[in-house]
Amino acid sequence: MRRSRELRLHIKDPALLPYLSAVAPGRTNAMSNFQQYRRKQIAELRPWEPGEDLAAVSISAPDKAAGSPKAGDMIARNPKNHADQWLVAAQYFADNFEPLPAAPAAAGEKGGRG
Question: Could you give the residue ranges of the DSSP H alpha helices within 2-102?
């Protein structure tokens, strides 16, 4: 009969305790480490178009299982790497994004003063 080994951690910083959970030795509990964050950047998205080639667009397994790509889905891209693109499901997009107000025209441009 195999004996189970007890894992003992000696944590000196009590601020780290909320990030730890009781898991079996050798296994991680990734679901317990989630925190909420607010985005600091502007997102770049465009509508998905039926028939377009999505070979370079990442689509998660849950989104595929839910029938994506489908009407209302959006394609997001990394503003610093336009080749990095992924699908954003329609409902997630509706719940979490809104268009930016149009920026006023700069002086010397169409519609601007100057």
Answer: 61-65, 90-96
Name the nearest CA neighbour of 48 among 93, 100, 111.
93
What are the backbone angles phi and psi of residue 4, rounded to the nearest 5°? -80, 150
Other residues' Cβ atoms within 10 Å of the Cβ of residue 84: 13
Q: What is the mean pLDDT of each run of 10 residues along the chain (114 residues)?
A: 50 55 55 84 94 96 97 96 97 93 73 50
Altogether, the residues listed in the chain come to a count of 114
CB burial of 67-80 (b: ≥16 within 10 Å; e: otherwise) equals ebbeeebbbbbeee
* 28: number of Cβ within 10 Å: 10
Q: Which pLDDT does position 28 carry in this prediction?
A: 59
pTM beyond 0.70? no
Q: Could you give phi then psi for residue 36, rounded to 5 degrees?
A: -90, 140
Residues 23, 29 contacting (CB under 8 angstroms): yes
